[in-house]
Design a protein that fits this description.
The chain is of the alpha+beta class. 51% of the residues lie in helices and 16% in strands. It has six helices and six strands, in the order H-E-H-E-E-E-H-E-H-E-H-H. The strands form two sheets. It has a four-stranded antiparallel sheet with strand order 2-5-1-6, sandwiched between helices. A two-stranded antiparallel ribbon has the order 3-4. Strand 3 (92-96) and strand 4 (103-107) form a beta hairpin. Helix 2 runs antiparallel to helix 4 and helix 5 (175-209) packs antiparallel against helix 6 (212-227). The longest helix is centred in the C-terminal third of the chain and has 35 residues, at 175-209. It is elongated and about 100 Å long. The two termini are 27 Å apart.
Amino acid sequence: QFLPPSGSESDIAYNEMGKYFPDFLFIDVEVILIQAKWKINSTNGILSNPNTPIIVNKTNYTIWNKINPNYNLLLTIQSYYDSANAVNANFSHNVTNPITNKTVTITGAEIQGFIDNAAAGKYVDPAQDCMLLFVESNINGASTATLDGFIDDIKDALSNINKGYPEYNLVLTGGITIFQQDMQVIASDITSKDMVMMPLIFCIMIYMIGSWKLVALPGASLGFTIVI
């Protein structure tokens, strides 16, 4: 299990998920965190804001129709709103208790409320300041370039959507995303911190070997390796 680089967007999302959804930190899917940036109270949670379902719908549409056709990796996108309106609001049914012989009427709205409460436990934190979307993909046989392109396009799409709703924070995290960011950090270290030490290393090698010509060949090989 890879951990996201400290201070990265994935690290922020990873920590937020760890507060309320620790069981979802190790699932094999990418997770989109939709976080409310306004001050939350008992009446203005993330589910109360009419922009939340709009953001979810835009994200779902963009990934399915604008990004996935270029890669054909996407399997499902799961969200809180998948079960919305699962029951007809006009539905009603009378149920009689065989012991008390009392009859009560169960409405569609009540049943939908039970469904929504059950869904909220998976997708929305108790404080109602963040929501999760699960993006499941079939990555078997996909090249690194394909995976990188798929993840980069999703991050770019989230960034573009986020510009229209600055009161939210949209972040992508998950196994592929974290691995990609870790590799970027490693590459950055190689080309910055490690390169600073190269002159000193070569000076020590020349001193120990006694010939700069013998050091030149492995030095050139190392340079080509870094470039490649």
